[in-house]
């Protein structure tokens, strides 16, 4: 399974080093694929077997894009994994589908592992199922869903950081729809916690989780990785 942590705008570089040291201890005997996305200023060369990914980068090698980082900055730390389409970038930072697709195309050309996020806001969830699926399908416009280095993360916007989680049946249903679109591994994200991760990982077509706030506690994240190992040995 794929167990990923999106640390968002948390943990300084020094705190991330402590985090990665602790995490390395617990992944040593794990068979899970673990990915951590530190804050941009915490990107570094970490002494770890865990994959380090970027939460964002501009689709350019380098240049005049104030406040952004480019391919060159990722290459310095041998980073080959990137998160694209996260709802916070879509809704808070205003990234359009067109721009997201441009970013996807650029990093695909560079051979990056792309964790591509989709998910609906509450008003769409509360409309009909058809509307919800149409909304999510639109988030795939311009995206090569058969890219062989792709991971998809389904993250309902209303479940992110709220403690609210869809029912397991809802997750099963939407994941089975998404599996028709792509054969890529499919993660669930949105209020994944130590107390629900085991159940979520057992839902059909859930290939892993993308964890935000709960992953800030390295012991919680380690517990989740341990649960995934246990489930694989049942
Ligand atoms: P929370 O786990 O805090 O809900 O965040 C999920 C997320 O956005 C991961 O990318």
Major sheet: 8 strands, parallel
Averaged pLDDT, please? Answer: 97
- Order of SSEs: EHEEHEHHEHHEHEHEH
Question: Could you tell me the number of beta strands?
Answer: 8
Radius of gyration: 17 Å
Number of helical segments with 4 or more residues:
9
Strand order of the largest sheet: 3-2-1-8-7-6-5-4
Tell me the fraction of residues in β-strands, as a range: 5-15%
| Small ligands present | 1,3-dihydroxyacetonephosphate
Features:
binds 1,3-dihydroxyacetonephosphate, 234 residues, 38% helix, 15% strand, 8 strands, 8-stranded parallel beta sheet, alpha/beta
SSE topology:
Blueprint: E1 2-6, H1 13-27, E2 33-37, E3 51-52, H2 71-76, E4 81-84, H3 87-92, H4 97-109, E5 113-118, H5 122-125, H6 129-138, E6 150-154, H7 168-181, E7 186-189, H8 197-201, E8 208-211, H9 218-232
Parallel strand pairs: 1-2, 1-8, 2-3, 4-5, 5-6, 6-7, 7-8
Helix pairs in contact: 1-9
Residues 6, 86, 155, 160-161, 189-192, 210-214 line the site of 1,3-dihydroxyacetonephosphate (13P).
